[in-house]
Amino acid sequence: MLGASTVIQLELDPPLDMKALKNFAISTFDRSTIKHLPPSLERLEISYSRALQRFVLPNNFNISRVTIIKTHLSWVELQRNDAIQMLSIVLSKLQHVPSTLKNLKNLTNIKLQQSFIHQLNLDLLQWFPGLLSLELMQNRIRTIKSTLNGGQQRKLESLNLRHNQLRIINLEVLSPLGWFKYVDLSHNKIELLVGRFSSDRLVAIILSHNRLKALDFCQWKPIPSLHSISLDTNELTRVPNCMHHLSNLSYICFSNNKLAIVNMDVFGEMDNLTNLDLTGNHISSITFREEKYPKRLKELNLSENKIECNNPHEMPFCPLDIEFQPSSPDSAWKRNNNTLQRQLTITTG
């Protein structure tokens, strides 16, 4: 019950259907608190309330959105509630995804950010037929698991797991990753990405700021929907094998890796590739062959490549060798009819 000494700061912010509670000085939010709120409330925000440790959402609380920011929340009970569509808990003491989350079957957006969650089971996706986004950024997630298969597929928008502690991703047992349009696994500690993978939905995947030393896509089925992949700031020493399995990519970022020599043959079957970023590698040589090259490439960024000189005392700088090899003595490239060179902007320096 709310006593006379209880401190609650209620702030009525526009729109009028939202109530903001700041400096909430009660350790538990439950039915006894809710009865003091207006019945027409649709959105609730609790923020900067370090006293709050327990949150109970009753089944008769007709509210569509709950946001809880910067509390000591460590225990959550979510009773069956069909009204809730968005749940956001940021800066809490949560160590697990609440098991009672499945009682909110109409959730479309879930955010559990900047907490202490250490494991994610993607089986939770089966609980929410209308889910669009799942965000668990800045936690301590080390493992992802799932028993779901293609027969249980959902059409999802975004999965954001950046800034966690993932090391190994076995795609073989993570089919649900292919159900999202956008997947962000950046700023983890990923050293190994393995296993068969397929998707008819994935549009963009971000794997930047990890520890990948090698990667190949040979076990990936062709993904026509995939248009963008970011692998910047890893430790790759060569371009991944089987890039042709991602033939519809329009943007690829390999910046800030350890690539040294790049043969553009590996991108030769990628007719939609327009932008290739190779900034900040150790590339000394790029070779285009007339027989096999990305036909629509427009931007090639080779800036800030750290080229080691064989004879540093003989040359003031080490040139980057960009070669266009004609297919025959009388080919179009040999006759200076090189459409690629005319359309391509190469950035160096």
**Rg computed from alpha carbons, rounded to a whole number of angstroms:** 26 Å
Strand order of the largest sheet: 1-2-4-6-8-9-11-13-15-17-18-19-21-23-25
Mean pLDDT rating? 91
Strand runs, count: 25
Terminal Cα span: 68 Å
- Contiguous helical run count: 2
Percentage of helical residues?
A: under 10%
Q: Any low-confidence stretches, pLDDT <50, length ≥5?
A: 1-14
Q: Which structural class is indicated by helix and strand composition?
A: mainly beta
Strand and helix order: EEEHEEEEEEEEEEEEEEEEEEEEEHE
Overall geometric form: elongated
Largest sheet: number of strands, sense, barrel closure: 15 strands, mixed
Question: What fraction strand?
Answer: 25-35%
Strand and helix map with partners:
Layout lengths: L8 E5 L4 E5 L5 E2 L1 H4 L8 E7 L4 E4 L7 E7 L3 E4 L7 E5 L18 E5 L5 E3 L11 E3 L7 E3 L10 E5 L7 E3 L9 E5 L7 E3 L9 E3 L21 E3 L20 E3 L7 E3 L11 E3 L7 E5 L9 E3 L19 E5 L13 H5 L1 E3 L2
Parallel strand pairs: 2-4, 3-5, 4-6, 5-7, 6-8, 8-9, 9-11, 10-12, 11-13, 13-15, 14-16, 15-17, 17-18, 18-19, 19-21, 20-22, 21-23, 22-24, 23-25
Antiparallel strand pairs: 1-2
Can you put this structure into words, describing what you see?
InterPro entries: Leu-rich_rpt (IPR001611), LRR_dom_sf (IPR032675). Keywords: Leucine-rich repeat, Repeat. It comes from Anopheles culicifacies. This is Leucine rich immune protein (Coil-less). There is one protein chain. The protein is built from two helices and 25 strands. A hairpin with a 4-residue loop joins strand 1 and strand 2. The protein is mostly beta strands and 349 residues long. The chain has a domain of 117 residues. Helix content is 3%, strand content 29%.
